[in-house]
Amino acid sequence: MLHQNLIGYGAGGAAAAGYTINNSIWLDGAADYLHRTPGSSGNGQVFTISLWIKISHLSQGAIIGVGDGATDEDAIVYANITNTIRALIDTGTNEGIQRTVALFRDTTAWYHLVFRFETTNATASSRIRMYVNSVLQDQTVSNQISQNFTTAINSTAIHAIGIRSPGGTADAFWDGYMTEVIMIDGQSLAPSSFGKTDAYGNWIPIDPSTLVFGTNGFWLDFEDSSALGNDVSGNNNDFTVVSMAAANQTLDSPTDSGTTIGNYCTGS
């Protein structure tokens, strides 16, 4: 996998923007991940996850996993499991198992994903909403999450990025790139809080620094190669990296600053 040997533009070339993302991280799909155990619980009913991803191979792994030390995960958001985006909230009752109808197979483009959780919502279909490049996705729902269900996300369980079961069997590692990984604790935010459509019709990121991140919220921008898990939200909810080093930081990005060109080709 060429993760640092940059060849040129990918087919989904990055857009020039006033706000730019300078770095991403590459995870190898075998051992790389980040983890953090919150010291106190936040809001397990209302929260938002936003991030940009670029897949390296089809049939991908996990983006966010939350576990309590048991074999199975308690909460998970996947990308490209059977080429779909998937959310699964499970504490043994199979709550909230749903996936996108659309397939995502482009290994040359950056995707912006927003997972909007609001289990307090009286409308069942609005309790877990998934967006790709700002578009609300039609979903196949195996089990609808119950109203007012409290998930393990934002609890004091282990939270991980790039692996499915941080508290149990290590599997479903993420193989690809990710950047601008954001968690908002206590708010259900639309994609417009994280991006906008430019004059050419491209969905591009906006500066998230004015957002209120909440107790367990974080913003990982991966700009410090010596501390890839550094939280720049102001909360200092830093993550510990596993099997990763400065070489996991890349210049691949969904934005083009004019001097730093984003979205490079990758090889396998």
**Average pLDDT, to the nearest integer?**
85
How much beta, percentage-wise?
Answer: 35-45%
Largest sheet: 8 strands, antiparallel
Q: Alpha-carbon distance between the termini?
A: 4 Å
**What's the number of extended β-strand segments?**
20
Q: Give the CA-based shape.
A: globular
Helical content band: under 10%
Structural class based on helices, strands and sheet pairing: mainly beta
Radius of gyration, in angstroms, nearest whole number:
17 Å
Order of helices and strands: EEEEEEEEEEEEEEEEEEEE
- The stretches of 5 or more residues where confidence is low (pLDDT under 50) are 1-13
Query: Total helix count?
Result: 0
Task: Describe what this molecule looks like in 3D.
The structure is a single chain. This protein is mainly β. The chain is built from no helices and 20 strands. Strands 2, 4, 9, 10, 11, 14, 17 and 19 form an eight-stranded antiparallel sheet that branches. Strand 5 and strand 6 (75-81) form a beta hairpin. The model is unreliable at 1-13 (pLDDT under 50).
